[in-house]
Please model this.
Amino acid sequence: MLAWILLAILLVVTLYPFVWMVRTAFTGNHEIFDGDYSLVPADPTLINFRRVLGQTSVAEAIAAGGSGAELNFWLYLRNSLVFTAVVVIGQVGFSATAAYAFARLRFKGRDTLFAVFLAGLMVPPIFTVLPNFALVRSLGWLNTFQGTLAPYLLMTPFAIFFLRQFFLGISPEIEDAATIDGAGKVTVFWRIILPMSGPPLSTLALITAVFAWNEYLWPQLVGKDDGVRLLNVALGVFRQASPTSSPDWAGLMAAATLQVIPVFLLLLLFGRKLVNSLGFTGIK
Amino acid sequence: MTTVAAPPRRPRAAQPSRRNRLRSGDAPVAWLFLLPALAGFVIFYLVPTVRGFWISLTDWNLLSDPEFVGLDNYREMLQDDKFWNALRITAEYVVINIGSQTVLALAIAVLMDRLTRSVLVRALIVVPWLVPNVTVAVVTLFMLDRNVGFVNHVLDLFGLDPQAFYGNSDQAIPTIALVNTWRNMGYTALLFFAGIQMIPRSLYEAAAIDGAGEWTLFRRVTLPLLRPVMVLVLVVSIIGSFQIFDTVAVTTKGGPADATRVIYYYIYQKAFNEFHMGYAAAMAVALFLILIVLTLAQMRMLRAADSDLR
Model:
């Protein structure tokens, strides 16, 4: 019984900030500063969402306690979705072929090369961010999608490691049979290995999506312009635009709520899969 | 870096004839399969790593050509109080974050294991981890606000004085550390939970027949048998924890009074606010070396843990 109470407390602590975020998003700024802490706002309003989405005049927004800054939400949402989708497809796809080569194909220097790839895990991202920024800048790719995407698109050492582990576990007899029937390695990979690898590939795709959605340092460095700005970056900018003396809390919480909706959808659609597979990935 | 419960590696000696037959035949296909990933690795990992070391030996503002200055950046770094301060508060952050996160995650994992297999509970506990750092930073900034924050409202109900949290130079680092503990503990708990599922149930039953209580079961069965998983998770969590940046960038920006200028943030400021690329790279090299030493030390612990079990 005591244990149940403990677990319940932990769950409340885990979730309450989000409840409060949503609650505040429907509250007028003046109520926040009046010190009303009831769970349901006395006078619920949509004004915060409307002004975050730019559906109010500047005067209206400022009257509601905002800075007049709007969040070009739909544009940033599109940018974030494109970014995440391309990163997931590129990383998982290219890492899968590479992982297969490392797991099953025989060529000179394979194990050495794999060890070098793995060593890439040790390099802290900030270390490569400096030269990568210089590279992207000299290519003229600042504030472009290719600049924002480039470092993520082709591989991560983790993805290759993760899929290689799975491919190693597939019985080689299955492939041998196909090889004897005259199938080439590409056919074997495409027709036999990939169809067998649904679970690990989708697990990796989900994790990659969560990580891509969370990326901040690099996108805010190379993707400042509106046309390529991600939601994360936009929320950071929106926070900076909020006056420090009396912050536009209601507006910020409305923006944060909008930012969390896609996460909520992900959990709703893939919750079981996500929860059951996350336990078997030891990386953040 | 780590896959808990990875399938065992197949012994390679079991297929000598295949190896000879296929060695030459596979090479063209193999390089084709590797090409995109290899290009990505060389362009965005390997070359930048080498280039990072080179930049650390130069004076460079990104606009003019880099000028070779030998070890000057490193000399300057060793005498830079801000650098040492950044390392100190980063270490403080890591200790508080990893310590609290590990204990809480372990508690959650054991509670879930003993009480419920519910997918819903596990899904709810992992919610903060699915939300981006930036969002978590903004939400907690509000929750912990000195004047209108909900946490101060609760403190007030208990008759305690309001706290500034992010805004107090003594509290800022513990605050950021605990906020990220809150964000990550559910995820870490899932890793531990998966580890606990691999412990044979018969061990618990046998110990229970011998009259062992919950605490003894935890101390004598769960904890020792979970150790390999715990070490793996710790290796990865600690490296990740050293990379604290997002929360600082969104909330305190290194303040108040440098109290939260962690090493990642200091490197970032030097490189992209002051354009001292060489100096920033030298600090990145230092961070790199620290992480390598830590990882190697932990790998030794891991091997010790392995031999303990098998």
Observations:
- Confidence is low (pLDDT under 50) at residues 1-23 of chain B.
- The beta strands of chain B are 58-59, 67-68.
- Residues 86 and 266 of chain B are 7 Å apart (CA to CA).
- Chain B touches chain A through 114 residues (CB under 8 Å).
